[in-house]
Amino acid sequence: MKDQRKMKDRQREDRYNFCANVKTQFGCSECGEDHYICLEFHHVDPEEKRQNKGKTAQPPSIFHLGWDNIIKELAKCEIMCMNCHHKFHDREMPGAEIQKNKNSTHKLRQEKMTFPEEYQRELYE
Q1: What pLDDT, in 10s, does the model give residues 79-115?
Q2: How many CA atoms lie within 13 Å of 29's alpha carbon, on the beta-carbon side?
Q3: Would you list the DSSP string of 12-53?
Q4: Helix axes 2-26, 67-74, angle to 10 degrees
Q5: With a threshold of 0.70, does the pTM exceed it?
Q6: Can you name the residues that pair with 77 across neighbouring β-strands?
């Protein structure tokens, strides 16, 4: 039982590290911030967002998903720092003028994401 728990913890840690690396690699699509702890995944189309199947009010976590589903979910996102992400959603509030950065590109959809070699071991286990 402890071995199974350790394996699950290791898988979750690998997924967390992968997402942190993706955030650092691409940085904020608005301002260029590249420290992973400041970055969030922003769903370009909220209708495509994977919904939390749990009964809690917690936001859905992708760390429990398999690698294929993580890649699918990240492909729906762009990376934004917390400040830009909050400003973006503030502009969506009723009465707020929506102003999107014309230079912003959806980097994750333009780049073909592949699994780093160190994460491939889990794909085929």
Answers
A1: 999 999 999 888 766 554 444 444 444 555 555 555 5
A2: 23
A3: HHHHHHHHHHHHHHH--TTT----GGGEEEEESSGGGSPPP-
A4: 30
A5: no
A6: 43
